[in-house]
Amino acid sequence: MDIVEILQQLGPAGNSSSNNNTQVLVGFVSEPAGRGTISLLLSCLFTLALCVWSSVHLDLPEPDEGTVRYTWRYLKWSLLAVFGPELVVWAAWRQHISARTLTSKIRALAGSGSQVANLTWSMTHSFYAGMGGFAIDIDMDMDMDRVNPDQRRRRLYLTARGVLLLAECGLLPDMRPEEIQDKSKTDGGEKAMCCLQAGWMLVQVASRLAAGLPVTPLEINTIGHVVCALAIFVLWWHKPRWVREPTRLQGDWTRCMCAFMYMCSHMSDSGSEKTALLDTMGAGAGAGDISLLPAGFNRERPEILSLVYESPGPGFKLNTNGIRRARALQADGPGSTTTWSNIGDMIMDSSDSRLEDSPGMEAATEAMRQARWKLASEAVQRYAPVRQRLQKQQRDSKSGRKPEELIQGRPRDWPGDHLVHGVPGIYMGTTLWLMSMVFGAVHVAGWHDQFPSAVEAAMWRASSVYVVFSGLVWASINLLAHLSGAVWWLWYDLLAGRASRACRVAIVALCAVGGLLYLVARLFLVAEAFASLRALPVGAFLCPSWLLTVPHL
Hints:
The protein is mainly alpha-helical.
């Protein structure tokens, strides 16, 4: 049955879109006389698929990541964009802030008459750097296996922070934007087409509202994704897409800088998995071989490993506490001609302690550690920015630790300490939950829509309100954690697994219940958007006449 037959059955009054008869629910409606069920479904599906597929911009793949694995990773992010688009918006926002900050810092270096005075740098360069565009291949002829203890790694990727350090040292290669764009498999045309389709959906919905016609739950859900997609396009407009191979950095400096950056990064930490969790939740900080503590920091915290050191010289001794078995490391220490008395405290990780059960492995571990120290000391001696980096006494969080993630084994799509921080940490988590509130508010706008049943209407309203409420609660908790040191430490200890059992059980139970309800609410909003097509009000199939004259999909 088409819309004309339905209106004829309703009588003459049915031709008025303002008449209550247009609120009568009908099933499947065919196409010829206007829009029908199929055209409504296809239009929303096409817009949704185009927005989701075109908006996802992944970082570079690992060297051994084939097409199948890369496509699967892309599909997982696409599913995330369908069921949690605000998470993708947040990731894009974090990367955009990092790229903008990196661009500003490198341009400032170029304008200060430093060694990068002639360097051309743009937002495209910064996005390329943040997505793993610069890498160091560890070749056997470089004898770098002793620098990187993970024998499986043959390529290390510089993070945005690592690229900034290279720029400060004058080691960053000059690349034209065209060279980066040539690696990208997409251009502005694809993004423009998606923006046009998204814009058409917004115009169509606005026209229906202006004409007093109902907007279907599927259109409301699609609008939520359209808004998120447009935000992602704006944030990732300069980010290259489908790049498969990085730019290899070469030179005699790569050995020493690779060793130093490795020792500053989470790769050298045995608790990298726990650290990654802390980073993801906004409570992490660098905990590699080298990490700085500000003067006067509370040393009673159990996670702090103190290092008693002397001015490094030939045969200097490093005594570490917090490692299962105290040991003395004899080596030609970093900067044997340099006095380190003013450098500050350092944290030595226990990543190698787990290998000490085997005498042979212990000797190999000590050899690798000594090699890394020797090469890192060369970087300290050769480059003033490296020495300045060690001398900085800055706090990045309540923990007092200064995060340093300069190099990593593979690019990470999800934001973390590998990005350059351009805004205070308080805004990071708060922004994520505010985005969730906005997405939920879009669905709250369908409060008075007609649904196939009263139960579905009630669940739609409850789900959309719960999404907004959850975002408000977590945004408030995030704000409170940054205003109260006690709350922050409670959250940190919880993530690090040091909170009391009762506290862990209570918090985990609340988060599990709240998270499950949130997941159910999000899934229901998507499922109901399609399920509601089985019974829509007659007015949903009426259109302003001018919309039918415009070619569209």
